[in-house]
Amino acid sequence: MKAFIREFKEFIAKGNVMSMAVGIIVGSAFTAIVTSLNQDIITPLLGLILGQIDFTSLSITVGNASIAYGNFIQAVITFLITALTLFLILKAFNRFTAKKKEAEEEKTEEPAPVPEDIQLLTEIRDLLKKE
């Protein structure tokens, strides 16, 4: 049992678990942002464009059961809007990180200055070749 507890402590202390925990917390906060963007900005704009279409009232009654297929349609529309919003945000983020990476690569591609002794040896070599 002690070995199990020691192994579990090592697992928890690893950076991967901590990174995953931070990712989950940031993901939760990001979910709130995307949800707000969807519900407070995009959905009302689409409502203005499409004339406040609401599918939630659509249903079929079969016997004593009511099949609310309108809720499903509304959930699919909400999912598609959320997925599109997330796609656009991630696309912009990826474009930003790609530009940042390119800028870093340009900085690292600059040749290091040639040491003075190497320059002198190169000049001597070139002079000897001329003679």
TrEMBL record:
Location(s) in or outside the cell: Cell membrane; Membrane
Membrane-topology annotation of the record: Multi-pass membrane protein
Domain of life: Bacteria
Main location: membrane
Transmembrane segments: 12-34, 72-93
Gene Ontology MF, one: mechanosensitive monoatomic ion channel activity
Pfam family, one: MscL
UniProt key word Nucleotide-binding: no
Keyword flag Transmembrane helix: yes
GO cellular component terms given for this protein: plasma membrane
Entry keywords, A to Z: Cell membrane, Ion channel, Ion transport, Membrane, Transmembrane, Transmembrane helix, Transport
Subunit structure: Homopentamer.
Protein family per UniProt: Belongs to the MscL family.
NCBIfam families: mscL
Job description of the protein: Channel that opens in response to stretch forces in the membrane lipid bilayer. May participate in the regulation of osmotic pressure changes within the cell.
Protein name, entry field: Large-conductance mechanosensitive channel
